Amino acid sequence: MNKKFAAALSGGAVLVLTLSGCSDDSDDKVNDWAKKVCDQVQPQLQKIANANAAIQEQTADNSKPADVQKTDSAAFQQISQAYKALGAAVDSAGPPPVDDGETTQKEAVKELNASSTAYAGLKTKVDGLNTKDQAEFADGLKGIADELNKISTNGDQALKKLQSGEVGSAMSKQKGCQKPTASSSPAAGEPAPAVDGSGKESPESESGTSEKEKETSPKASS
Questions:
Q1: Please, which residues bridge with residue 195 across strands?
Q2: Tell me: the pLDDT tens digits for 89-134?
Q3: I want to staple 26 with a disulfide (CB 3.0 to 4.6 A). Which of 18, 91, 142, 170 is the partner?
Q4: Residues with Cβ < 8 Å from 158, sequence gap 6 or more?
Q5: pLDDT digit string, tens, across residues 191-204
Q6: What sign results for the dihedral spanned by CA atoms 90, 92, 98, 100?
Q7: Which helix (H) or strand (E) holds 135?
Q8: Widest distance between CA atoms in the chain
Q9: Whole-angstrom distance, CA of residue 27 vs CA of residue 166
Protein backbone atom coordinates (compact mmCIF):
# COMPACT_ATOMS: atom_id res chain seq x y z
CA MET A 1 0.00 0.00 0.00
CA ASN A 2 1.04 3.60 -0.51
CA LYS A 3 3.10 4.97 2.35
CA LYS A 4 2.16 8.47 1.28
CA PHE A 5 -1.19 7.73 2.89
CA ALA A 6 0.48 6.97 6.19
CA ALA A 7 2.50 10.16 6.08
CA ALA A 8 -0.58 12.20 5.33
CA LEU A 9 -2.54 10.69 8.21
CA SER A 10 0.23 11.12 10.73
CA GLY A 11 0.46 14.74 9.72
CA GLY A 12 -3.20 15.42 10.44
CA ALA A 13 -4.08 18.32 12.69
CA VAL A 14 -5.07 17.40 16.19
CA LEU A 15 -6.16 19.85 18.83
CA VAL A 16 -3.44 20.89 21.26
CA LEU A 17 -0.84 18.48 19.98
CA THR A 18 1.16 21.50 18.90
CA LEU A 19 1.19 23.03 22.36
CA SER A 20 4.55 23.82 23.84
CA GLY A 21 5.98 25.90 26.63
CA CYS A 22 5.31 25.92 30.35
CA SER A 23 5.04 29.57 31.26
CA ASP A 24 3.04 30.36 34.38
CA ASP A 25 1.65 33.73 33.38
CA SER A 26 -1.96 32.57 33.04
CA ASP A 27 -4.35 33.36 35.86
CA ASP A 28 -6.50 30.94 37.84
CA LYS A 29 -9.61 31.48 35.70
CA VAL A 30 -7.74 30.63 32.52
CA ASN A 31 -6.12 27.61 34.17
CA ASP A 32 -9.51 26.39 35.37
CA TRP A 33 -10.91 26.73 31.85
CA ALA A 34 -7.95 24.86 30.39
CA LYS A 35 -8.36 22.02 32.88
CA LYS A 36 -12.07 21.73 32.10
CA VAL A 37 -11.28 21.34 28.41
CA CYS A 38 -8.19 19.15 28.70
CA ASP A 39 -9.82 16.67 31.06
CA GLN A 40 -12.28 15.87 28.24
CA VAL A 41 -9.74 16.17 25.45
CA GLN A 42 -7.31 13.44 26.50
CA PRO A 43 -9.57 10.42 25.83
CA GLN A 44 -10.28 11.76 22.35
CA LEU A 45 -6.62 12.43 21.56
CA GLN A 46 -5.90 8.87 22.67
CA LYS A 47 -8.52 7.53 20.28
CA ILE A 48 -7.03 9.51 17.40
CA ALA A 49 -3.51 8.27 18.26
CA ASN A 50 -4.74 4.67 18.40
CA ALA A 51 -6.56 5.02 15.09
CA ASN A 52 -3.47 6.47 13.43
CA ALA A 53 -1.36 3.62 14.82
CA ALA A 54 -3.82 1.06 13.51
CA ILE A 55 -3.64 2.63 10.06
CA GLN A 56 0.14 2.47 10.15
CA GLU A 57 0.01 -1.23 10.93
CA GLN A 58 -1.73 -1.83 7.62
CA THR A 59 0.88 -0.12 5.44
CA ALA A 60 2.82 -3.21 4.43
CA ASP A 61 3.23 -3.67 0.69
CA ASN A 62 1.60 -7.08 0.92
CA SER A 63 -1.45 -5.80 2.81
CA LYS A 64 -4.68 -7.03 1.28
CA PRO A 65 -6.99 -4.27 -0.04
CA ALA A 66 -9.95 -5.67 1.92
CA ASP A 67 -7.95 -5.51 5.17
CA VAL A 68 -6.76 -1.98 4.44
CA GLN A 69 -10.30 -0.90 3.66
CA LYS A 70 -11.67 -2.39 6.88
CA THR A 71 -8.93 -0.80 8.96
CA ASP A 72 -9.13 2.61 7.33
CA SER A 73 -12.90 2.69 7.58
CA ALA A 74 -12.86 1.92 11.30
CA ALA A 75 -10.08 4.46 11.88
CA PHE A 76 -11.83 7.27 10.02
CA GLN A 77 -15.03 6.60 11.93
CA GLN A 78 -13.13 6.70 15.21
CA ILE A 79 -11.29 9.90 14.31
CA SER A 80 -14.53 11.52 13.15
CA GLN A 81 -16.24 10.73 16.45
CA ALA A 82 -13.21 11.95 18.39
CA TYR A 83 -13.25 15.32 16.62
CA LYS A 84 -16.96 15.63 17.29
CA ALA A 85 -16.33 15.02 20.98
CA LEU A 86 -13.44 17.51 20.99
CA GLY A 87 -15.76 20.13 19.55
CA ALA A 88 -18.34 19.34 22.23
CA ALA A 89 -15.66 19.63 24.93
CA VAL A 90 -14.54 23.08 23.80
CA ASP A 91 -18.16 24.14 23.38
CA SER A 92 -19.30 22.94 26.81
CA ALA A 93 -16.35 24.66 28.54
CA GLY A 94 -17.69 28.04 27.46
CA PRO A 95 -15.58 30.94 26.16
CA PRO A 96 -12.07 31.15 27.65
CA PRO A 97 -11.75 34.14 30.03
CA VAL A 98 -9.56 36.19 27.70
CA ASP A 99 -10.06 38.97 25.18
CA ASP A 100 -12.13 37.81 22.22
CA GLY A 101 -12.57 34.48 23.98
CA GLU A 102 -16.09 33.85 22.69
CA THR A 103 -15.12 34.29 19.05
CA THR A 104 -12.03 32.14 19.50
CA GLN A 105 -14.09 29.39 21.10
CA LYS A 106 -16.82 29.42 18.46
CA GLU A 107 -14.36 29.31 15.58
CA ALA A 108 -12.42 26.42 17.17
CA VAL A 109 -15.64 24.44 17.69
CA LYS A 110 -16.58 25.12 14.07
CA GLU A 111 -13.24 23.77 12.84
CA LEU A 112 -13.40 20.67 15.00
CA ASN A 113 -16.90 19.85 13.79
CA ALA A 114 -15.78 20.42 10.21
CA SER A 115 -12.92 17.95 10.74
CA SER A 116 -15.39 15.43 12.14
CA THR A 117 -17.52 15.78 9.02
CA ALA A 118 -14.48 15.52 6.75
CA TYR A 119 -13.30 12.26 8.31
CA ALA A 120 -16.82 10.84 8.13
CA GLY A 121 -16.71 11.64 4.42
CA LEU A 122 -13.39 9.81 4.07
CA LYS A 123 -14.91 6.76 5.72
CA THR A 124 -17.69 6.77 3.15
CA LYS A 125 -15.18 7.07 0.32
CA VAL A 126 -12.91 4.29 1.53
CA ASP A 127 -15.96 2.06 2.04
CA GLY A 128 -16.79 2.58 -1.62
CA LEU A 129 -13.38 1.58 -3.01
CA ASN A 130 -13.10 -1.54 -5.19
CA THR A 131 -10.96 -4.02 -3.25
CA LYS A 132 -11.06 -6.63 -6.04
CA ASP A 133 -8.76 -4.56 -8.27
CA GLN A 134 -5.55 -3.72 -6.40
CA ALA A 135 -4.38 -1.07 -8.87
CA GLU A 136 -7.75 0.68 -8.79
CA PHE A 137 -7.84 0.42 -5.02
CA ALA A 138 -4.36 1.97 -4.75
CA ASP A 139 -5.46 4.86 -6.95
CA GLY A 140 -8.47 5.37 -4.72
CA LEU A 141 -6.27 5.47 -1.64
CA LYS A 142 -4.07 8.06 -3.30
CA GLY A 143 -7.11 10.27 -3.79
CA ILE A 144 -8.03 9.85 -0.13
CA ALA A 145 -4.45 10.68 0.86
CA ASP A 146 -4.69 13.92 -1.09
CA GLU A 147 -7.90 14.82 0.75
CA LEU A 148 -6.27 14.01 4.08
CA ASN A 149 -3.46 16.39 3.25
CA LYS A 150 -6.01 19.11 2.56
CA ILE A 151 -7.74 18.46 5.88
CA SER A 152 -4.43 18.82 7.69
CA THR A 153 -3.32 21.97 5.90
CA ASN A 154 -6.56 23.91 5.65
CA GLY A 155 -8.70 25.51 8.31
CA ASP A 156 -6.38 25.30 11.28
CA GLN A 157 -6.29 29.01 12.02
CA ALA A 158 -8.93 28.99 14.76
CA LEU A 159 -7.33 26.05 16.56
CA LYS A 160 -3.93 27.70 16.38
CA LYS A 161 -5.43 30.84 17.87
CA LEU A 162 -7.01 28.81 20.68
CA GLN A 163 -3.60 27.30 21.39
CA SER A 164 -1.79 30.63 21.50
CA GLY A 165 -1.25 33.26 24.15
CA GLU A 166 -2.49 32.88 27.71
CA VAL A 167 -4.98 30.14 26.87
CA GLY A 168 -2.38 28.09 25.00
CA SER A 169 0.05 28.47 27.87
CA ALA A 170 -2.54 27.22 30.35
CA MET A 171 -3.51 24.29 28.15
CA SER A 172 0.11 23.25 27.62
CA LYS A 173 0.45 22.72 31.37
CA GLN A 174 -2.49 20.33 31.50
CA LYS A 175 -1.63 16.65 31.25
CA GLY A 176 -4.86 16.03 29.36
CA CYS A 177 -3.69 18.22 26.49
CA GLN A 178 -0.36 16.50 26.03
CA LYS A 179 0.24 14.23 23.06
CA PRO A 180 -0.65 10.66 24.01
CA THR A 181 1.21 7.51 23.06
CA ALA A 182 -0.78 5.05 21.02
CA SER A 183 -1.73 1.91 22.87
CA SER A 184 -1.86 -1.45 21.19
CA SER A 185 -4.34 -1.03 18.43
CA PRO A 186 -7.57 -2.99 18.60
CA ALA A 187 -8.83 -5.18 15.83
CA ALA A 188 -9.93 -3.32 12.75
CA GLY A 189 -13.33 -4.90 12.95
CA GLU A 190 -14.18 -3.46 16.35
CA PRO A 191 -16.81 -0.74 16.38
CA ALA A 192 -15.69 2.82 16.89
CA PRO A 193 -16.43 4.28 20.34
CA ALA A 194 -19.77 5.95 20.70
CA VAL A 195 -20.00 9.60 21.64
CA ASP A 196 -22.99 10.70 23.64
CA GLY A 197 -24.76 14.01 23.36
CA SER A 198 -22.50 15.64 25.90
CA GLY A 199 -19.52 14.99 23.67
CA LYS A 200 -18.13 12.41 26.06
CA GLU A 201 -17.42 9.01 24.72
CA SER A 202 -19.31 6.05 26.03
CA PRO A 203 -17.22 3.68 28.15
CA GLU A 204 -17.01 1.25 25.31
CA SER A 205 -14.05 -0.25 23.59
CA GLU A 206 -11.75 1.95 21.60
CA SER A 207 -11.80 0.68 18.10
CA GLY A 208 -8.54 0.75 16.36
CA THR A 209 -7.25 0.91 12.93
CA SER A 210 -4.24 -0.77 11.61
CA GLU A 211 -1.16 0.83 10.37
CA LYS A 212 -2.31 -0.07 6.93
CA GLU A 213 -4.28 3.08 6.84
CA LYS A 214 -1.26 5.18 7.25
CA GLU A 215 0.17 3.76 4.15
CA THR A 216 -2.83 4.68 2.25
CA SER A 217 -2.86 8.22 3.13
CA PRO A 218 -2.93 11.28 5.27
CA LYS A 219 -3.69 14.20 9.96
CA ALA A 220 -3.95 17.00 12.34
CA SER A 221 -2.58 18.20 12.99
CA SER A 222 -6.41 18.63 15.49
A1: 201
A2: 999 999 998 888 899 899 889 988 998 999 999 999 999 999 999 8
A3: 170
A4: 104, 107, 108, 110, 111
A5: 333 333 333 343 33
A6: positive
A7: helix 134-153
A8: 58
A9: 8
